Structures are given as structure tokens and as C-alpha cells.
Amino acid sequence: MVKRLWLIGLLSLVLVGFLEFSVRGADVAVPLESMMSSFGLPVMKQSSEQALRPDESGGPADFQVTFAAAIAQSAPNYVPREETALADPTNYGDRFATDVYGRPVYNDFIAVLHETVGSAQSAINTFRTPHPRDDDQVSYHALIAQDGTVIYIVPPEKRAFGAGNSVFNGPQGPETVLTNRQFPPSVNNFAYHVSLETPSDGRGNSRTHSGYTQAQYESLAWLLARTTIPENRITTHRIVDRSGNRMDPRSFDTTKFLTLLRRYPSRAGLAAAEFTERSLELAQQEGGLSPSRSRF
What we know:
6 helices; six-stranded mixed β-sheet; alpha/beta
């Protein structure tokens, strides 16, 4: 009788251990559920015949276009040139409806503003180059050249790798999503990343430069006016970064941008100016470094 009870006890311990191992294993191996919807973000222009090509020499080169944009006096009538330069698939991934623990995520989209530091073409060359190593992967959803051309790089329903270790501290509190246990959580899962081409005098790590063109501000306002992202969810790379070494976009004129954005009727009811202006003003006080290079 004692032997039988001992055997039953031993079997019970084995069963408990097996169940605990299974639960822990499931926690590690929970598959991430992809999210394909990008409702509220700009539609990506499909123009493969006009897609920009990497510099054949293999080195950085200034982005050249023949289009001379005339800035419209009325913002709703302004239409920039649009191009498509799809990033290599290694440089972007799926957005997820769950995190690594299998928990649903419900973050509304944010817009994160960046700058290229180098030329637009050198950034495009980087995005279109395969990067097998996770640490080298980088991209934006869209890039705005100095002449105002809007260059679409990653489809809006996909996750661009624009910010590594990052968090958005908004009206609803801190927001970030862990999609890989080997990397810190980031805002990439719910971010729409837009970068401005840096002027030639800012292609380095100085704290300021001459600023962005009128055409870039017009195009940025035009692009974000096509989203449902409210002003209090428009932020900068410097603000969401938790590494302490990202400071872009430098020399950003918050007042000019918001003035242009608010000329669009679609922005009615989406303004939260006080928070946004304070957030973006912080970016004007800092310098800038190269784009983030982190997938997660």
C-alpha cells in the first residue's frame, strides 16, 4: 500500500513537471499573430515603372529628380510628386496583433518624424540592400526629398524598422510592444515612420543645420493630412528613443509644420496642439545622429 502511494505520488510529480514545462515552452514559442490592416494611413503609390533605382556604382549619391515643384498657395490644392522605392524585404516585416506573450495589442498609430542625415539616395540605397543581420536592418515608410518628392519605401500595413529601443509617452501613458525577446520593445509595431532628407550642411553629427525646405514641410503636411493620426500622436525619433543617442529631426520648425497641417479640413477635430508643440519643440533643441538600425 505504501509502495503504491509512493508510486502515485511520483507519477503526480512527473505530471506536474511536464505540465509546467509545457506551459513555459508555450510562453516561449507563442506565435505572433500578423496584423494586415493599415486603415488611417496613406495609400502607397504603386508605380514600379517609376521606382527609384539604387546607385549602380554602389556608393552614396545625391537623389536627383527633374520635377520642379511649384508650392501651391492653398495647402489642400498642393500635390507633391510621388515615387516608389521599395525596401528589400529583410528591412521590414509584419505588424502584429499580439506581442511575444500572445497578448493582444491595441495601439493606435503614431507618426514618428526622422531625418536621413545623409542624402535621400544614400538612404534608399541602404534600404534596398539586403541585411541578413537583425542589427543592420533599417527603413522608413516614407521619405521626403528636399524638392518635396514623397518617396514610399515600406507599405503602410508593414512594420518599418525605424526605431529600436523606444517608447511613446502619450496621453494614454507609455506605449511600446515587444515582438522579439532578443531585442528591447519598440514603437515600430504601431508607428508610421516619415523621414526628411537632410540638407548638405547637416550631413554629420552637428546639433543643428540650415533646416528643411518649404517643399518638404508642404509635403509632410500633405502626407500626414491623409492619415487619421491626431496631432498628439505625432512625435519625433528623439522623443521616442530610449537609447539616448537619437536626436532627429534637427532644426525642425514645429510652428511651420503645424500651420500647414491645420490648413487641411481633414484635420478638424484631430488637434491636440499644446502637447504636440511641446513635444516637437524638444526636437529643435537637440542635434542628430544617423538613422536607427534596429529591427525590433
